[in-house]
Design goal:
Blueprint: E1 6-10, H1 14-25, E2 29-33, E3 45-47, H2 51-55, E4 61-62, E5 73-74, E6 77-78, E7 83-84, E8 87-88, E9 95-96, H3 104-121, H4 125-154, H5 159-172, H6 176-186, E10 190-192, E11 195-196
Parallel strand pairs: 1-2, 2-3
Antiparallel strand pairs: 4-5, 6-9, 7-8, 10-11
């Protein structure tokens, strides 16, 4: 049986809540630090702490002005190492991306699952955190790249790109291969253009 650990989760976003619940179910002692003591569910201990000071702000959406056609720009960020023992970054604090593929919530939930699974498999915490980072790397790289490619089609002043999106994407979804790949992409299963993970 793996060692039960005392774990502090900072922030009550999707990644924080998912990590807290998942780790608590794995019988670790979890303290969830949140601004509102009545917000988090279950028996998680709740307390306020300045998460912004501890983790810092990561600017995710930065709209730019000028230069027709204008295209929204987003900072694509990945922490080189998503942990510095004993602190682990999950969700947007570990990897910021644009919202085009709707994966920020998925990414946070999958981060929490990968962390809980790594802690369950590995007896040494450093090995568990390293495995967690490696497990998530291909997913993050693919979705950041794909989101960057999709941004001009969904957030720009280009009439040409808008028309191209409407015509091409609408036809691709009718083709079995592309329809299947689109579903895998939106489900958060892709780890590359031709690679994916089966749903657990």
């Amino acid at each position: 049986m793996r060692e039960r650990r005392s774990i502090a989760v900072v922030g009550a976003g999707i990644a924080g809540l998912a990590a807290g619940v998942r780790l608590a179910r794995a019988r670790h002692h979890v303290t969830l630090f949140v601004p509102d003591p009545g917000f988090a569910p279950g028996s998680l201990t709740q307390r306020y702490i300045a998460a912004r000071v501890m983790l810092g702000w990561l600017p995710v959406g930065c709209a730019t002005l000028g230069g027709p056609p204008r295209v929204a720009r987003y900072i694509q960020y990945s922490a080189p190492t998503p942990f510095r023992r004993p602190l682990v970054l999950l969700g947007d604090s570990a990897h910021a991306t644009s919202p085009q593929l709707g994966q920020r919530a998925n990414a946070a939930l999958l981060d929490a699952m990968a962390l809980a699974d790594a802690l369950k498999r590995c007896s040494d915490i450093h090995t568990a955190l390293t495995e967690h980072g490696v497990t998530r790397r291909a997913y993050i790289r693919f979705y950041q790249m794909a989101s960057r490619l999709m941004t001009p089609f969904f957030q720009s002043d280009s009439v040409t790109l808008a028309r191209l999106r409407g015509r091409v994407f609408n036809r691709l979804k009718a083709m079995p291969y592309f329809h299947r790949e689109m579903i895998r992409t939106l489900a958060g299963l892709k780890t590359g253009f031709f690679r994916y993970e089966d749903a657990a």
